[in-house]
Write a structure and sequence with these properties.
Blueprint (H helix, E strand, L loop, with lengths): L4 H25 L9 H21 L12 H28 L11 H29 L10 E5 L3 H12 L6 E6 L9 E2 L2 E5 L4 H7 L4 E4 L6 H14 L2 E4 L17 E2 L15 H8 L3 E5 L4 H11 L5 E6 L2 H14 L4 E6 L5 H11 L3 E4 L6 H6 L1 H21 L4 E7 L8 H17 L5 E7 L1 E3 L5 H10 L4 E3 L5 E2 L1 E3 H13 L6 E4 L5 E2 H11 L10 E3 L19 E3 L5 E4 L6 H14 L5 H11 L15
Parallel strand pairs: 1-2, 1-5, 2-4, 5-6, 8-9, 8-11, 9-10, 11-12, 12-13, 13-18, 14-17, 15-20
Antiparallel strand pairs: 3-4, 6-7, 16-19, 18-22, 21-22
Protein name: NDP-sugar epimerase, includes UDP-GlcNAc-inverting 4,6-dehydratase FlaA1 and capsular polysaccharide biosynthesis protein EpsC
Pfam families: CoA_binding_3, Polysacc_synt_2
Family: Belongs to the polysaccharide synthase family.
Length: 624
C-alpha cells in the first residue's frame, strides 16, 4: 500500500478541515453570505486547495509524526506547510482565472479571504494536531492514581521540567511533583507545567514540612558542589529521601538525553563543570586509526576504551595483564559498539619481546598507556616491582612505538610524580622523563598527562569507605588534614583523549583538578549519603600517614611552571632538562638486576635521576 491506514485517515480529516477553512474564509469575508459572483472562486479554492494542501502536508512530513509529543518544532512545520499551501492555492486560482478569462464570467480571490484562509488553516490543522498533546498532558492526569509520595523538585529550569515529565511518564509510580524550588526570584509564585514554584533554597524546610514532602529531587546540573552539599545537609536533617538528576547532556557525543533520576552520590558534591571536548579535533586523530590501550581492563584504561570507541577507530587493541577484566571490557564494547574491530592481547608490559611483537603486528597509529602499579603503600613494600613495571614497562612500550612510527603516544601519569615522596610517585616521574627523552629523537609525538586521584577507581578511597560503612565502621582516614585532588573516571578519560589531540611532542599535560578536597570531609559526606551520622552512627578513625604519603599533592614542581592551552581545563608544564645518559644507566640496571634489587638500592637508583627523592626522609617504615 502506498499510504498506511493512519495516513489515509489523517488525510481525510485534513480534507474536511481544508474545506471548512475555505468556506469559513469566504463566509467571514462576506458578512451576508458568499455572493453568487464568487461561488466559482470558492469552488475552485476548495477543490484546488484540498489537493494542494494535502500534497504539501505530505511533502512536509505532517503524516509521519507522533503528535502526542508535538512541540514548537511541529508547530513551525505546520505554519510552513500551511504558508506554502496557501500561497500555492492563491496562485493556482489566480492563474486559472487568467487562462480561462474568456469562458469564465468571474473568478478572483479577495485578498482578505486569502489571509483568512491562512489563519483558519493554521488554527484548524494546528489545533487538530495539538489536541493529542493537550489530551496527553491534561486529560488523563486526574485519573492516574500513581504513588501517594509527595515530591519536591529543586530547580525550575530545563532539568526540572525533564524531572517532572519523567515522573509523569512513569504514571507517577515514583511520586507526584507538588512544587519547585528555585533561587531565581523572578520565578517565584509562577507555575511550570501547572506546578507552582514554592520558594527558594532557604524555603526548603518550610515547604517540606508544610506540604508533607517525602522526596526531594535535585535538578540543577550546573550547580556547584557547595550548593549541592548544602541541599543535601538540609534534606538529611528533615529526614526526606534525596535524589539527583545529574544532567541533560552526554559529554562526549553531545547527544541530548535524560539520565536516570538516582540517589545522590559523593561525586555530585564535587560540583565540577562538565568537560567540553573538541569532537572534530579528537575524531581527527583517532577515527580510522588502530588504537592500542594498555591497562585496558583498569578503571582509567577501560573508560578510555569506551570513549575512544565512540570516535570510530579502525581497530581497537586492548592490552592487559588480567584476563577477567580484559574479557569484561571486550564484551561490553562489542555490545555497545559492534561495528569496530576489537583485538584483545594478554601481556605484561615488562615482556619486551611480546610488546615489540604486538606493535609490529598491529602497527598502531595512537597509543594510550594506562598500565601501571599505582598503590602507594603496596609499592613501598614492593619497590622493585614498581621500578620494573612503571619504568621498564613504559620504556618497552615507548621504544616499540618509536620503532613502528606511532603517530601519538599518550602516557598516563599522576600528581604523585611531582616532588615525589613515594616509590610509586618517583617511578612515575621517571617514566615521564623516559617519554620526554625519547620524544627528542623520535618522529612519534610522546606526551604524558598528569592528574590526581580518580573517584571510584579500584582501590581508591570511595570503594574503601563504602565497604567500611557497610561493615558498620569505623571509616579509617590517615590524617585529619589530608587533602587530595579528585576527578571522576569519565572526566579524566575525556581530558586525556583531548590532551592527545593537542599533542605536539614532549609535553606534560596537567589537568585542572579543581579545588583539593579534605579526605575526612569526603568520608563524612559518604557517611551522610549512606543514611548515617558521622561519629554518631559510624565512627571516623585516624590511622596516621602511611609510607610514602604526603598531606597534600602538587601538580607542578617549582621549576616547571605552567602555560595554558586552548582548552580551559588542560595546561602544559614547561619541560625540565633531562639527563638521558643517567636514564639509560638506570633502565639498564633494572633490566639486569630488577627482581634482586634491595630497598636501599631502589631508593639510590631513583635518586640518580630525581636527586631530591627521599634525601630528608631516608627511613621509611613499610611493615604496615
Amino acid at each position: 500500500m502506498l499510504f498506511r491506514k493512519r495516513t489515509l485517515i489523517l488525510m481525510l480529516i485534513d480534507a474536511l478541515l481544508i474545506n471548512l477553512a475555505a468556506f469559513g474564509s469566504f463566509y467571514l469575508r462576506f458578512d451576508e453570505g458568499i455572493p453568487l459572483d464568487y461561488y466559482q472562486t470558492y469552488y475552485h479554492t476548495a477543490i484546488g486547495g484540498t489537493i494542494l494542501y494535502l500534497a504539501v502536508f505530505y511533502v512536509f512530513g505532517l503524516y509521519n509524526r507522533l503528535w502526542q509529543y508535538a512541540s514548537t518544532g511541529e508547530l513551525l512545520s505546520i505554519v510552513y506547510a500551511v504558508s506554502v499551501g496557501t500561497g500555492g492555492t492563491v496562485a493556482a486560482v489566480y492563474f486559472y482565472g487568467l487562462s480561462n478569462a474568456d469562458t469564465l464570467s468571474y473568478i478572483r480571490m479577495p485578498h482578505t479571504a486569502a489571509v483568512l484562509l491562512w489563519l483558519a488553516m493554521v488554527f484548524l490543522i494546528g489545533g487538530s494536531r495539538f489536541i493529542w498533546r493537550i489530551l496527553q498532558e491534561n486529560a488523563f492526569d486526574r485519573h492516574v492514581p500513581g504513588s501517594q509520595k509527595q515530591v519536591l523538585i529543586v530547580g525550575a529550569g530545563d532539568a526540572g521540567v525533564l524531572a517532572a515529565r519523567e515522573l509523569k511518564n512513569r504514571n507517577y509510580r515514583d511520586g507526584r511533583p507538588i512544587g519547585f524550588i528555585d533561587d531565581n526570584h523572578s520565578k517565584q509564585k509562577l507555575q511550570l507545567l501547572g506546578i507552582p514554584v514554592l520558594g527558594t533554597r532557604l524555603d526548603i524546610a518550610r515547604v517540606v514540612k508544610g506540604h508533607n514532602v517525602d522526596e526531594v529531587i535535585i535538578a540543577m546540573p550546573s550547580a556547584s558542589g557547595e550548593a549541592v552539599r548544602e541541599i543535601v545537609q538540609i534534606c538529611e536533617k528533615l529526614g526526606v529521601i534525596l535524589k539527583i538528576m545529574p544532567g541533560v547532556y552526554d559529554i562526549i557525543s553531545g547527544d541530548m538525553n535524560v539520565k536516570p533520576i538516582r540517589q545522590v552520590q559523593v561525586e555530585d558534591l564535587l560540583g565540577r563543570d562538565p568537560v567540553s571536548v573538541d569532537l572534530e579535533e579528537v575524531a581527527g586523530y583517532v577515527a580510522g586509526e588502530t588504537v592500542i590501550i594498555t591497562g585496558a581492563g583498569g578503571s582509567i584504561g577501560s573508560e578510555i576504551c569506551r570513549q575512544i570507541a565512540r570516535f570510530n577507530p579502525g581497530r581497537l587493541v586492548l592490552l592487559g595483564h588480567g584476563e577477567n577484566t580484559i574479557f569484561d571490557i571486550e564484551q561490553e564494547l562489542r555490545s555497545e559498539h559492534p561495528g569496530i574491530d576489537y583485538i584483545t592481547e594478554i601481556l605484561d608490559v615488562k615482556d619486551r619481546e611480546k610488546v615489540f611483537l604486538i606493535f609490529e603486528r598491529y602497527k598502531p597509529g595512537v597509543v594510550f598507556h594506562a598500565a601501571a602499579h599505582k598503590h602507594v603503600p603496596l609499592m613501598e613494600r614492593n619497590p622493585e616491582e614498581a621500578l620494573k613495571n612503571n619504568v621498564v614497562g613504559t620504556q618497552n612500550l615507548a621504544e616499540a612505538a618509536d620503532e613502528v612510527k606511532v603517530k601519538t603516544f599518550v602516557s598516563i601519569s599522576t600528581d604523585k610524580a611531582v616532588n615525589p615522596t613515594s616509590v610509586m610517585g618517583a617511578t612515575k616521574r621517571t617514566s615521564e622523563m623516559i617519554i620526554q627523552s625519547l620524544d627528542l629523537r623520535s618522529q612519534t609525538k610522546f606526551v604524558a598527562v598528569r592528574f590526581g586521584n580518580v573517584l571510584g577507581s579500584r582501590g581508591s578511597v570511595i570503594p574503601t569507605f563504602k565497604r567500611q560503612i557497610a561493615q558498620g565502621g569505623p571509616v579509617t582516614v590517615t590524617h585529619p588534614d589530608m587533602v587530595r585532588y579528585f576527578m571522576t573516571i569519565p572526566e579524566a578519560a575525556q581530558l586525556v583523549i583531548q590532551a592527545g589531540a593537542m599533542a605536539r611532542g614532549g609535553e606534560i599535560f596537567i589537568l585542572d583538578m579543581g579545588k583539593p578536597v579534605k579526605i575526612v570531609d569526603l568520608a563524612k559526606d559518604l557517611i551522610r549519603l549512606s543514611g548515617f551520622e558521622p561519629d554518631v552512627d559510624i565512627k571516623i578513625q585516624f590511622t596516621g600517614i602511611r609510607p610514602g604519603e604526603k598531606l597534600f599533592e602538587e601538580l607542578l614542581t617549582a621549576e616547571e611552571g605552567v602555560t595554558s592551552t586552548k582548552h580551559s581545563r588542560i595546561f602544559v608544564a614547561k619541560p625540565n632538562n633531562i639527563d638521558v645518559k643517567l636514564l639509560e644507566e638506570l633502565t639498564h640496571i633494572i633490566r639486569e638486576r630488577g627482581s634482586f634489587l634491595t630497598r636501599d638500592e631502589v631508593i639510590k637508583l631513583l635518586q640518580t635521576v630525581i636527586p631530591a627523592f627521599r634525601k630528608k626522609t631516608e627511613k621509611v617504615v613499610v611493615n604496615q
